[in-house]
Every structure is written in C-alpha cells, then in structure tokens.
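Weekly modeling sync, notes
Attendees: S.R. (lead), two postdocs, one rotation student

Agenda item 3: backlog of single-chain predictions. S.R. asked that every request posted to the team notebook include the full sequence so nobody has to chase files. The rotation student volunteered to paste the first one in as an example of the format we agreed on. Action items at the bottom.

Example entry:
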Amino acid sequence: MAARGWRTAAAVAAARSGGGGSGRAPGSGRASEPLPEPAAPATAALYVHWPYCRKRCSYCNFNTYVVPVVDEAAVRSSLVQEARTLLRLSQVQSVTSVFFGGGTPSLASPRTVAAVLEAVAEVAHLPAGAEVTLEANPSSASAPRLAGFRAAGVNRLSIGVQSLDDAELRLLGREHTAAEARGTVEVARGLFPGRTSLDLIFGLPGQSRGAWARGLEAALGLCDDHISLYQLTLERGTALAAQVWGGALPTPPQDLLADMYETARTMLAAAGFRHYEVSNFARKGALSTHNLSYWRAEQYIGVGPGAHGRFVPRGEGGRSREARVQMLEPDAWMRAVQSQGHGTRRRAVLSPLEQLEEVLALGLRTDEGVTHERWGHFSPHLSLEAVFGEPGEEAQALQEQGWLLLDGGGLRCTWEGLALLDSLLPGLLCQLQRRWAPPAAPARPAPGAAPGGGGQAPRRNPTGDRASDDAAGRAGAVRGGGGE
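Predicted structure, as returned to the notebook:
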C-alpha cells in the first residue's frame, strides 16, 4: 500500500460531525496540536504509480488510463523528478522498500524502473537487499521482459492472476488466459524464487464455493510463498457492476462470500501459509515488507498520478505527519512536476487522533495487531490499556467473546476476530474517540466500516498486495497484480 487511492482511515473520523480530536487527552495537551515525530531515524517506503493499461477490466475503478500512445520518456522523467523532490522534502535517510504499482507497471520498460531506482539511490540510501516489487500482468510479462526488470533492480513480483479459469477471466475482462497465467508464474518463480506473489479474486457473480475451492487448489499447486485474496467489489461506473445491478448477472449472497473466505483461510493454513493480514498469506517468511510499512503506520511516499503518501515534510520545516495525494490525471500531473518539481494536489496535517485511528484500523488488519511500542510512538501519554482496557467498554466485550486480545504483546484480533474486522472496528474507533475527547463532548459513532474491506471477506481495493485502499491511500498502495 503507499499509495494508490484510498480514503485514509482518518476519513472514518473526518466523516463524523464535530470532527475528531478537538478535545484534550488525559495528560497529553490539546488533541488539536499536531504530534511531532522523532527526528531519526528518517526512513520511508516508496510507492511509484504507473497509470496506464492496455484495456480496462470489467470491475476496475482504479486511477488508470487507456491511451493510444504513452510518451514513456516524459513519464519516466516526471517520475524521476517527483521522486527526487519528495525524498528531499521528506529528508528521509533510507528507503526501506519500493513498490511499482498501477495500472499495469509491467507495461513500462525496465529502463524506467532502473531510472527511478537510480534516482532514489542518489537522494537516499537504498539498501542492497531492500524489497523492490513490481506488479505484473501475465499479458505483459514475457520471460525476456521479466529478466529485464530483474536486471533493473526488481527482486519481487506480484502477478495479477485473479483466476485460473478462462470463463472467470473473461467475466473479469482480463487479457490473459489461464494457460498464460500459469506460464508467467512458472517463469517468475525461476527469476524471483521465493519472491513471487499471486493475486486471486473471489465472489464473482455465479461463482460457487466449490468452484472457488477448486481454483484455489489449482493456485496452491502453482504458487510460490505469497498469495493475496480479494473479494470482488462492485464499483459504480464499472461494466461488471452495471451487469449485476441490471439483473443480467446474480449478486453473490453474503453468507456465501463469508464461506468462501473461511474456506480459503482453512486451505491456506493447511498448506503452511500464515494469515498475516486480512487479505494476505505467506509461508517461509515471505511477508511483503512494503505492505507491512502501511499496516504498521510507517512513513511512505507516493510518486506518480494519484499516489498517496504519509510523511513529515522536514525539508520545509514540517514537524508533523501529513496526508498527501498527487494529481490524478497523468498529463496534468506531468505539467505540475515540470513546473514545480512535484504534482501534489492535496495535503493535510493529520491530527493525533487521526493518526491513532489509522494506527488502529491498519494495525488490526494484521495478526500481530497494534503493539504497545507502535502505539506509544503515536500516543506517548495515553496507552493502549488506558484506551481499551477499561471494564464495561467495547474492547472488553470483544475479548470476552473471543474476538480480541489485549495483553503484553498489544491489541490484536484472534483468528476468529480477524474475519469479522469490519464489524469490530466501528465500536473500537468510537471507544478511542470517547477516551480522547473530554466527557462534555463525546464523539459520535464513526460511520461505515474499517478501511480496505477487512471484514468477513476482504474486498478488492485499489491498493498492492494491497493493504487497504480505504485506510491509507495509494495511487497504488497496497495491491498486487497490476492492471486490474
């Protein structure tokens, strides 16, 4: 996740009337005062958005563009310039990971990838072993092309397989066939052993639990050590949504979607996969370093049209974390980069409460949850126990029901609770808001669920192996499998 296009988790609070964080936290000063971040170490993840696709898939509402001709030299120059500008603005000393998302970044040339990585290394330290992920579509991932990306510096691949059934692929509007997907994965595993991730989508109109289980079984026979699963979300303005809402295709029942998700969790666990995040599974330690940056609420910088970021602009005297989003339309973004060095469209300082809401909503998506150390970084005067350890509150009730744990490790969901995250989060966010606000001004309930669709079945969001589009923003940010 850096930044494809999500609504920030803070939007959960921003949507409340009265706004969050206007009160005084016990012993912490006014909540409206931005929270200064430590001066060091200055590290960040970097997300780079390639906005172009050859065609738009039937379910896609991401910030992608289909154009007759792409001026790759101009796009490359702008990506390099913006990366340099934002890295200098952030004054990060080291880039922990790089993620090329889209769109379909495997349509870019290896030269473009190499140029961006070289620019990053000129401005900040890019460790030799830093994770560098590229999203790829089977239709634009030939063996020579993938070898070129490896030579350019890519060391991890996220392949948008989505299905191994040709009829399902046609329904999704994908360019590739199941046979092409299998071939691409086999080549990728040879070039990126242990570092090839697959994206799969479930909950298609007319799909049965048995069909989904058979497809997943086929994927398990093909995959490497990382799989991302996403429930199909019908988005307004997409061809697939129009077919379903118009009655031409059936709407999958919610109970069936939940069964599909539980079936997948059981099958993957039996195959040795750790369910380390709502939508992500890994074995042999092959977790996505980049996406963990989002879920752990670390700094990330978004480069490219529509990219989102969360970082402190120390280069201009900033001391507090900002939410930033770049211009959406590629040509307008390139003009802005050429004139001012970057194409930032909107920026806002995040209040301490907004930051804690993101820490909570993102952290609970993972099996490690929110650690005391991470919470203390953002809330040095109001501990996890002070917020969620009070008798008679929501968190205690969830613990008694076996869905939540608060112990020496921090706050996290149980195996059962992780599947219900969307249902658990609103009450926990309200509890945080009540503890943060003074008694005279209790916060109103936050509308909606947690970012990214973490509930009974994670939804397909516009963000890489994806973390959660709704929670942190990315013109890419957490997704996996380009060109969706």
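Discussion: group reviewed the output briefly. The CA atoms of residues 209 and 256 lie 7 Å apart.
Action items: rotation student to repeat for the remaining queue; S.R. to check formatting next week.
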